[in-house]
Amino acid sequence: MLSTKKVLLFGLGFFQRRLLKDIAEERPCVVVDIDSSLVDRVVEEYNNVEGIEGEASSIVTWKKINLEDISHIVSSLQDYDVVLEICRIARNVYNLQIPIVLMLYKNDRREELEQYDVKIINPISIASETVLNIIQKNYARPNNIGLGAGEIVEVIIRRRSHIVDRKMRFLAPSRWKVAAVYRNSNFIVPDGDFKMQIGDKVVLVGEPKVVENIVNILMIGKPEYPLQYGQNMAVMATPMVEKDALEINYFLNNTKAKKYLWYDTERHKIDNKDHIKVIEEAGGEFGGTLQNFRSAAYLHDVGTLALSGSSGFGLFNGRLKYYFKNTRHPFLISRGQAPYNEVVVSLNGYIPERLIETGAEIASHFGVSCRCIYVIPPGALKTQQDTQELEDRKKFVRDYENLTRTKIPLTVLEGNPVHKILAEISKTPNSLLLLAANSKDRISFLNPHTSFLIALRSDNSVLVLPDEDINE
To answer: Are residues 373 and 344 in contact, defined by beta-carbon separation less than 8 angstroms?
Structure first.
């Protein structure tokens, strides 16, 4: 049953009369305007509309209204002083706790009005957003919801990115969220295991600038590394050599990371002034003292964890092994290789699609080329599964090339993947090598771990991506 209470409308301009036509079909109304001819016209036109001639800001006018019968107040008046008085009388004089809707064309003195708990609508903004939503078919900012500052956005995913096909729990966004997803005419409230896909219509909420960045990633694949993992670059500064500090700063300046934060541990605190000077001159800020090196694997809002590789790792170094098995964010093993000449992606891992996408994205950040390597067993040792995995990787590369119109060469080699990849990347000095952590594989003398051994032995800098779906 429809409510019998009435809507109180102040002003009978063109827009308000059109609004009255729609409201009067559903609800009885009371209209107030200083123009008696307009009041008489609408009263004559609608049999469920009561008219009052008078000043909206006059208490005399308000006394003519049976406020107990009013469920909503709507004003289209543009005089701010009059509108403020309407709000003051309703809230402070009559203590009305009903919704008040104000249609205003300007945003001046908005804070004065908001103290009265009102809803402000700008008809011009709504019209503009509606037109833009029609033009930008894959992107929409909802009308009359929230602040209207871009903190709520609906977008259709059109390009593959690091945000797509990843479990929500591993995105760990701190300043934006996925509120809802529409897929194949189904409404979905995403949980931690949900993965967005190309073609999904997604409702994003968050800080407007951050939401804008995420929209760019989903719509056009705009390079945003490492923001999909976190805002900051965390650096384990024990030990650190100058050329590595400079490379890490180079990495920071050519990606979207916001800060370069260096950390020491309770056991290994940096007190050498020369070491601190090297880090600070490279742009680093002190992030704090961690309990131990393991704590770095769980730092919040970290897009990349950086380690010095030039200082050397012992065989099966415990620190490096721990990061391969446990870190939730990418980590860079720096060997002072900046500037990079190319990005080389090893597809001998569990996440080939993400490796290709990240490698191409990082290469675009640094303005260099990207190529892929995949090593298969030789001759008679090659199984049907090996052949299928090779075909899968060829398809992933082709798909990415077709999607982005970017050429990504793929080199296929036969033999021991550790030896072959190390030999291949040694041909190009200052190559950045991209690997998957392959965290489900054991690391021991009896179980050689391809990615770990390559990272351990390489003279090149190495960026390792976590394989989140496996590392649960």
So the answer is: yes
Question: How far apart (Å, rounded) are the C-alpha atoms in residues 391 and 396?
Answer: 9
Last residue of a domain, one of 334, 369, 384: 334
d(CA 100, CA 91): 10
Is 263 in the same domain as 211? no
- β-sheet bridge partners, residue 412: 374
- pLDDT band with cut points at 50, 70 and 90 for residue 341: very high
Q: Which of 89, 121, 153 is the last residue of a domain?
A: 121
Dihedrals phi, psi of 112, to nearest 5 degrees? -60, -40
pLDDT band for position 396 (cuts 50, 70, 90): confident
Query: Residue 36: CB partners within 8 Å, gap ≥ 6?
Result: 53
344-392 pLDDT, tens digit per residue, is 999 998 888 888 888 998 998 899 999 999 999 998 888 999 999 999 9
Query: 237-267 as b/e, with b when 16 or more CB fall inside 10 Å?
Result: bbebbbbbbbbbbbbbebbbbeebbbbbbee
360 occurs within a structural domain: yes
CATH number of the domain residue 90 falls in: 3.40.50.720
**Residues 325, 351: one domain?**
no
pTM beyond 0.85, yes or no? no
415 and 427 in one domain? Answer: yes
Q: What is the pLDDT of residue 315?
A: 41
Provide the residue range defining the domain that includes 319: 232-334
